[in-house]
Amino acid sequence: MRTRPKAPSFRFLFSHPAHFLACGCGSGLSPWAPGTAGTAFAWLVYWLMRPWFSEGQFGLLLVVAYLLGIWCVHRTGRDLGEPDHGSIVWDEIVPFWLVLFMVPESWIWQLAAFAFFRLFDIVKWPPADWFDQKMKNGFGVMADDLAAAFHTLLAMAFMQWFLN
After folding, report:
1. How many CA within 13 A on the CB side of residue 17?
2. Helices (H), the chain
3. Is residue 161 pLDDT above 80, yes or no?
């Protein structure tokens, strides 16, 4: 049985801006289900920041946050000695923002998206499994959750089609 690596300290969190971002502003330090905590943090932050951006601006923010995340996640994983350490949750945050951006604004649709995203992030259907197993760097860590977001959006589109 694989043991969960120890969460980094608050000192580590604030020792470099990349660590603060990669650990989801501290949400990844949760002792229980840090990926779920990071995704919940993403949902909260999405509703706080989304009104301030047009659709185009938010799309650009997603691209910048994703690309910056590759570096932050890589740096933090290297400094922790594990590329996809459990406390690194920026890889959940940005792809889930994409999901929220694409699904209906209703809380029930977003709750369903949350559940699907967590499921697909844990199950790691292809190509997420390939990125998770073969690319032990910031790009691979970010890409496997982008694949989970893609699977979530497909499931949500199917659900929307089925219900209409």
Report:
1. 3
2. 10-13, 17-22, 34-49, 55-80, 90-102, 107-123, 128-134, 138-163
3. yes
Domain parsing of the chain, residue ranges: 24-163
> Half-sphere exposure of residue 116, counting CA atoms within 13 Å on the CB side?
24
At 83, list the tokens. 């590329």
Give the span between the Cα atoms of 98 and 20, in whole angstroms. Answer: 21
Report percent pLDDT > 90 for the chain.
89
Q: What would the two tokens of residue 29 be?
A: 């330090």
CA dist 154 → 11, 35, 68, 78, 102 (Å): 40, 21, 26, 33, 11
Predicted local confidence at residue 54, as pLDDT: 97
Cα atoms in the Cβ-side hemisphere of radius 13 Å centred on 148:
30
Of 18-22, 118-122, 126-130, the poorest mean pLDDT is in 126-130
